[in-house]
Specification:
The chain is α/β, with parallel strands linked by helices. The protein contains 6 helices and 9 strands; from the N terminus they run H-H-E-E-E-H-E-H-E-H-E-E-E-E-H. Strands 5-4-3-8-9 form a 5-stranded mixed beta sheet. The radius of gyration is 28 Å and the shape is globular.
């Protein structure tokens, strides 16, 4: 107990000191109780304020993590153009995919658990997307060489674009610090942005996007 830094121990020490000062009288006991209760109240008030601040900070961080440092593009408007190299070094542009649906997904890092699961699911469902006339394109801040290793390790047959400076990611409101955020955009064959998924679960995201794409195609 001698090294215990907890509020409970501090209050115990305060109570002992107060007892000595008050001489153990009844009046002293009353004063001790009042002071100790007052200190408990202050500790609880401080704890509550700290909890509120933590919740506030976490909420702000969560919002920033999803929305990035630039605004998201507008649904119904032309999707922002991009010009980035894929894992083979070939420069890809949004215009290259004109006439097809594009599932453009941004993710933080190659080889990380969530990003690996997400990529595997997209690869698994790639034939289904292509049956619907859609291509899947991934974007992260990783280098071309990193993308090449990632695709080789996971057997990925979809283009992964390298965006180390965040130019394409910023255009889609999907950049934070030094990496892309986990946001997905559905772009129709005319290059119009039709849907945005800013909060995704990597393990089931591909299936959700596939269902979303089918609904958009049926709706015309």
């Amino acid at each position: 107990m001698a090294g215990d830094p907890t509020p409970a121990f501090a209050l115990q020490v305060a109570a002992v000191k107060l007892c000595k000062l008050e001489g153990g009288s009844r009046r002293g006991v009353a004063v001790i109780v009042k002071k100790v209760v007052g200190r408990i109240g202050r500790w609880l008030g401080f704890a509550g304020l700290l909890a509120a601040l933590l919740v506030s900070v976490v909420g702000v961080q969560s919002a920033l993590a999803q929305w990035g440092t630039t605004p998201l593009p507008q649904i119904g408007a032309p999707a922002p153009e991009f010009e980035l190299p894929d894992q083979s070094g070939q420069v890809r542009r949004l215009a290259d995919f004109r006439g097809k649906w594009v599932v453009l997904y941004f993710y933080p890092r190659d080889f990380t658990s969530g990003c690996t699961i997400e990529a595997r699911r997209f690869q698994q469902d790639l034939p289904k997307f292509r049956t619907l006339g859609a291509e899947i394109v991934g974007v992260s801040a990783d280098s071309v060489a990193s993308h090449r290793r990632f695709c080789s390790a996971e057997g990925l047959q979809l283009p992964l674009l390298s965006d180390p400076e965040g130019t394409g990611s910023r255009a889609y409101g999907s950049w934070m610090g030094e990496m892309a955020l986990r946001n997905t955009f559905l772009i129709d064959p005319e290059g119009i942005l039709r849907a945005i998924d800013p909060i995704v679960n990597p393990s089931r995201h591909s299936a959700e996007v596939l269902a979303q794409l089918q609904e958009l195609i049926q709706a015309g």
